[in-house]
Amino acid sequence: MIHGTLHFVADIVLTTFNARYAHAAFGLRYLMANLGTLQSRAILLEFEISHRPVDALETILAHDPKIVGIGVYIWNVTVATQLVAELKRVRPEVVVVLGGPEVSYETDQQEICRLADYVITGEADLAFAEVCGKVLLGKRPLMKIIPAELPHFGVSSSPPDSAVGFVRLPYDLYSDEDLKQRVVYVEASRGCPFKCEFCLSSLDVPVRNVELGAFLSQLDRLLSRGLNQFKFVDRTFNLNLNISKSILQFFLDRLRPGLFLHFEMIPDRLPEALRELIQKFPAGVLQFEVGIQTFNNDVARLISRRQDYAKLAENLRFLRRQTGVHVHADLIIGLPGEDVESFASGFDQLVAMKPQEIQIGMLKRLRGTPIVRHDAEWGMVYSPHPPYEILQTRLIDFAMMQRLRRFGRYWDLIANSGNFVGTMPFIWGDESPFKWFFALADWIFIRAGKSHAISLHRLMELLLEFLSAERGVPIHEAAAAIWQDYQRGGRSDRPGFLAPFVEPADTRGVRSKNVPARQARFLAG
C-alpha cells in the first residue's frame, strides 16, 4: 500500500514494510501527526514485505526526499536493511533515520544501524521531528544513536503549543480506505507493569494512560467515519479498572451491527464491575487476547512472570460460560525450564477451559529482553535470523522442537481457523488433546510433507482419513462432522471425497456478516 501522490516532492519520507496490506503502520502515523510545521513537507509511504526493496526505493526517490525515516520491526528488518543499503548506494546524501523496536536495542550489532545516519531508540514520536528539523536547517545531530526522551502520552489530537512534550494522537491520519479495508490500531495506554523476560513490553515503564476525554473523542470520530473494527494494542487493557470500564461503556452506548473490539487482557484480573459490563455485549463483538504463556509455576517464576492460576482459570471459565467474548489465549513453546511434558500438561489444561483459539508461539529472543540470562543454564539456542525463534533447549532438542513447531502451525490451520469446530473433539475423544493432536501433526506431515500452503479441501480429506483409520471413528460419522463444519463457513459445494458419505446441502450455510469471518465460524451452528 502506498499513501501519497507519486509526483509530490517531499523533504521527508516516512516509510516501512508492513507484514501485509491489512496492517496499517500505526507508528508512522504517530510520527506524521507530531511533525508539527514539517508535516506539510512530509509524505507517508507504506509497502508490504512482499514488495521488492528496489521497487520501494524507486517509489521513495520519486519524491526527491532529503530525509527518509524507516520503521524497523522484527518482521521487516531483512528487507529494510536491503532498502537502506541500496538507498545509500544510489543516493548517499539522503539522510536515513531509523526507529522502531528492532533497532531500539543492540544497535552496535546490526548492519542496518551501521548503514543509517541516525537511529532513534525508544518512543520516537517527538524525537523524529526534532532530528528532521535540525537536519533540514543544516544543524545535524552529533550523535548517531539518539535515545528518545519518554514523551507525555496523548493529551489531545491538537494540544496547544504550550503543551511541550505531549504526543498528538494520529487517528485523523487513517484514510477512508484504511477504515474500510485495514486493521485500525488504537491505544489507551503505553507500557506494562510486569517484567516477563521474553517480552519487550517489560522494558516499557511506567504505564502511561492517554487523557481519556481526548481519546474517546477520537474514537467517536472514527465511529462517525464508519469504522467498526478497533484493535487495541494496549498490553494490559484491564490494568486500570476505571479506564477499562469507561472505554467498554463508551462502546456499549454505541453498539451497532458490525462493531468488533479486540483487547489484550491480563488473565487473572477480572473484577465484578468489569464482568458486569462484559456480559452486556452480544456475542461476536468482543475478542480478548489472553496471554497465559505457561501453566508451570516454576517456569513462570524463572522468567519473572506473575499470575494467579486459580483466578486465571476462573476468569476463563466465566468468559466462556457466561459471556459472548471470543477468547484468544496464548501459550509459548521453548521457555527455559519447560520440557515437552510440562507444555503438554499446560496445553491440556487450557483446552479444557475451551477458549475459541489457542495461539501457540515459539519463544523468540527479542533484542533487549533479559531472557538471554538463561542461555547457559538451560542450553537456549536461537536462530540468529529474524524472528530469532528458539531452535533447541537443554530439555527439548532440535528434532522435537521442529515437531512442536509443526504442531503449532497445524493447530492454527485446523483448530484456530474455526473450520473444524465440530470435528475437533473427535481427534482426542476423552484422552489427552496434546497427545492426539501431536500424533495428528506428525501424521499430516508424513503425508503432506509441509505445514504451509495446504488447502482447506486437502485438510478435510486428511482429517477424514486420520479419524477413520487412526482413531477408529466410523467414516460416515467423521464425514458428517467435517461436512457440517464445512457448511458452518457458509459453503454448500460438496467436495467429491465426502460425496459417498453425506447428503448434499439443502440450503447454503448462513453466517453473520456483522462478525469477522474467522470468529463467525465459532458462532455458527
Structure overview:
With 525 residues, this protein is an alpha/beta fold. The protein has helices at 26-33, 53-61, 77-90, 111-115, 127-136, 176-181, 212-224, 241-252, 272-279, 297-302, 309-322, 340-352, 375-378, 398-416, 424-428, 433-448, 456-469, 475-488, 517-523; strands at 12-18, 42-48, 67-71, 95-99, 118-121, 145-147, 152-156, 166-168, 184-186, 189-190, 208-209, 229-232, 260-265, 286-293, 326-333, 357-362, 381-382, 390-392. Strand 4 (95-99), helix 4 and strand 5 (118-121) form a beta-alpha-beta unit. Helix 2 (53-61) crosses helix 3 (77-90) and helix 17 (456-469) runs antiparallel to helix 18 (475-488). It is globular and about 75 Å long. Residues 1-5 have low confidence and may be disordered.
Q: Report low-confidence residues grouped into runs of 5 or more.
A: 1-5
Mind telling me the CATH superfamily name of the largest domain?
A: tm_1862 like domain
The major sheet is characterized as: 6 strands, parallel
Specify the structural class.
alpha/beta
CATH topology of the largest domain, what is it called?
Answer: pyruvate-formate lyase- activating enzyme
Number of domains: 3
List keywords for this structure.
single chain, 525 residues, alpha/beta, Rossmann fold, pyruvate-formate lyase- activating enzyme, 3 domains, six-stranded parallel beta sheet, 19 helices, 18 strands, 38% helix, disordered N terminus
Describe the SSE topology.
Elements (H helix, E strand, L loop, with lengths): L11 E7 L7 H8 L8 E7 L4 H9 L5 E5 L5 H14 L4 E5 L11 H5 L2 E4 L5 H10 L8 E3 L4 E5 L9 E3 L7 H6 L2 E3 L2 E2 L17 E2 L2 H13 L4 E4 L8 H12 L7 E6 L6 H8 L6 E8 L3 H6 L6 H14 L3 E8 L6 H13 L4 E6 L12 H4 L2 E2 L7 E3 L5 H19 L7 H5 L4 H16 L7 H14 L5 H14 L28 H7 L2
Parallel strand pairs: 1-2, 1-3, 3-4, 4-5, 5-6, 7-8, 9-12, 12-13, 13-14, 14-15, 15-16
Antiparallel strand pairs: 10-11, 17-18
Helix pairs in contact: 2-3, 8-9, 14-16, 17-18
